[in-house]
Each structure stands twice: as C-alpha cells, then as structure tokens.
Amino acid sequence: MLVKFEGFAFVEGGVTASKGFQAAGLHCGIRANKTKKDLGLITANRPAVSAAVYTQNKVKGAPLDVTKNHLKNGKAQAVIVNSGIANTCAADGLETAEAMCRLAADALGIDASDVLPASTGVIGPSLPLEPIAAAMPALAASLSASGSAEAAEAIMTT
C-alpha cells in the first residue's frame, strides 16, 4: 500500500516491502543504552541492481568509500548498518568497514563485495568489531520480511 505524506510517498513495509527482501536489527553493544538497537542488516535473496547518492562533504566516512568500491559493478545483496559510532575520521575506518562486510557476508554465505556498510554516530572513535562479530549469527538468524522497523531503528543516529 502506498501512503502519501506532505508530498512524499512511503511504501508500507519499508525496505522489506518488495518480495525477496529481509531485515533485522538488534543491540550488540556499540551503544551504551541497551534498549536501543545498534546493528542492522538488510538482505535481498539475490544480487540486486543497486545505486547510491553520496554526500558532497569534504569529510566522508570510511563506509562511503567502501560502498563506492563495492557498487562499481552496480549490484549489491546486503547492507550492514550500525549506530553509535560513525566510523568517520578513525585511523582504521576502511579496514573496519571492509571487516563489517566480511562478517555479514560470511553469515549470509555471499561475497563480501556484495555487502554495503553504513555507520552513524559519534565521529572520531574506532568502531569495535568484537560486538559486531559476536552478534552477527543472531542478527542473520533473525532476518525476516517483517524486520524493516528493527533495521531502521538500528541505524538511527545519536
């Protein structure tokens, strides 16, 4: 169902409204507040034609550079997202963004280049991989066609 709101149209069901998409979100420990989800995953049942629009800011987060690289072939199958730490201006940002993609790809049985990372939150600190790695099996297991709201909550900024 299409819902119109002040000139914008929203599709009920969010990112999982289309057949073949699943999503999930949970709290893995990046954010101190345990009631807030901080890790999300969105998947397609096969590689999907994909495109992106990027910020024109001079300062860009490492996930943006990784996404640009992974989208060179115009396809993606998953998006891994986190909130709490933006993975921007961190010395190990690129390595961490690539590692997030590998963790998601391993859990899903797909190629890491088909995964796009996104992070939001505090700028500067390194994003810890340990809580992401520990939560990845539960996150992948909780994927569902009704998980759009959980994934959306997981990427909500600080």
Describe what this molecule looks like in 3D.
This protein has 158 residues and is an alpha+beta fold. It is built from four helices and six strands, in the order E-E-E-E-H-E-H-E-H-H. Helix 2 links the parallel strand 5 and strand 6 (115-122). The longest helix has 16 residues, at 93-108. The protein is globular, with a radius of gyration of 15 Å.
Structural key phrases:
four-stranded mixed beta sheet; 28% helix; 158 residues; alpha+beta; 4 helices; two-stranded antiparallel sheet
> What's the mean pLDDT score?
94
- Unreliable parts: none
Largest sheet: 4 strands, mixed
- Shape descriptor reads globular
Strand percentage, roughly? 25-35%
Helix proportion: 25-40%
Question: How are strands sequenced across the largest beta sheet?
Answer: 3-4-5-6
Summed up, the helix count is 4
Number of strands: 6
The sequence of SSEs as H and E is EEEEHEHEHH
Structural class: alpha+beta
Separation of the first and last Cα atoms: 31 Å
Give a short synopsis of this structure.
The protein is of the alpha+beta class and 158 residues long. The chain has helices spanning 62-70, 93-108, 130-141, 148-154, and strands spanning 2-5, 8-11, 21-26, 39-49, 75-85, 115-122.
Lay out the secondary structure.
Blueprint: E1 2-5, E2 8-11, E3 21-26, E4 39-49, H1 62-70, E5 75-85, H2 93-108, E6 115-122, H3 130-141, H4 148-154
Parallel strand pairs: 5-6
Antiparallel strand pairs: 1-2, 3-4, 4-5
Helix pairs in contact: 1-2, 2-3
